[in-house]
Task: inverse folding
């Protein structure tokens, strides 16, 4: 019976993924002519699409989603745990003017690349760390990056639930140079929607916004505090979801 249920969930997951990308293309056809002339329409498009993904995940997969904590507003950094595409969906849906520090390869992705540029995201080359950080800072300080909530993933990539990957210094540098508060964000989405693979599991996926960390101190101290709070609360959320957390401390 368990194998049958797993097989059914796998089939539903495939159907869900297919419809997710079909609807992305259809919404792009509708919204793009308006988004070309108005940035408000670009934000309306990404909020509509992320809302659709959350809604269909709920009724198709029984994968509910929840945002906890005060939703960030104004000019702030959001430093989030990144476990899969679903945490991006939840954060973008939750904040008014999301923008990202993202891999430059994403700019060339159809639809996603266009909307990423339209809402003010900035692309960086992950292979050139110091240049990437400098470009982030210059983009924010010069106003080249449009006002909004700047989302950054301090670990630099998706990290599987329960796995450890060190945090990079860029978030501390951005906070110090821009004077912006940093809002840590914890999540458990990787328990249900993995970084790789097709199977999506039922449950309650959560992104939780935590109390802000003010700029100041050494970058090393800032990052130690950020890592400690994000990992602690992500472990708590994963344990709440029934995931056995073995501890994410650095070796």
Result:
């Amino acid at each position: 019976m368990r194998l049958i249920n797993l097989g059914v969930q796998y089939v539903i997951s495939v159907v869900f993924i297919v419809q997710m990308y079909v609807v992305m293309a259809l919404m792009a056809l509708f919204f793009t002519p308006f988004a070309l002339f108005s940035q408000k329409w670009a934000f309306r498009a990404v909020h509509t699409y992320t809302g659709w993904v959350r809604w269909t995940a709920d009724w198709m997969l029984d994968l509910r989603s929840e945002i906890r904590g005060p939703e960030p507003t104004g000019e702030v950094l959001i430093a989030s745990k990144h476990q899969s595409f679903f945490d991006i969906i939840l954060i973008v849906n939750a904040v008014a003017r999301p923008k990202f520090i993202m891999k430059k390869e994403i700019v060339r992705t159809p639809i996603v690349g266009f909307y990423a540029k339209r809402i003010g995201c900035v692309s960086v080359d992950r292979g050139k760390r110091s240049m990437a950080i400098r470009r982030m800072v210059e983009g924010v300080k010069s106003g080249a990056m449009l006002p909004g909530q700047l989302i950054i993933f301090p670990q630099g990539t998706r990290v599987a639930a329960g796995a450890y990957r060190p945090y990079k210094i860029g978030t501390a540098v951005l906070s110090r140079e821009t004077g912006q508060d940093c809002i840590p964000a914890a999540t458990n989405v990787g328990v249900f929607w993995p970084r790789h693979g097709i199977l999506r599991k039922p449950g309650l996926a959560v992104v939780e916004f935590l109390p802000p960390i003010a700029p100041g101190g050494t970058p090393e101290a800032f990052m130690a505090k950020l890592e400690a709070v994000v990992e602690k609360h992500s472990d708590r959320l994963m344990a709440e979801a029934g995931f056995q957390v073995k501890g994410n401390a650095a070796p």
In short: DSSP finds seven helices and seven strands in the chain. The longest strand covers residues 203-209. The radius of gyration is 18 Å. The first helix runs from residue 2 to 35.
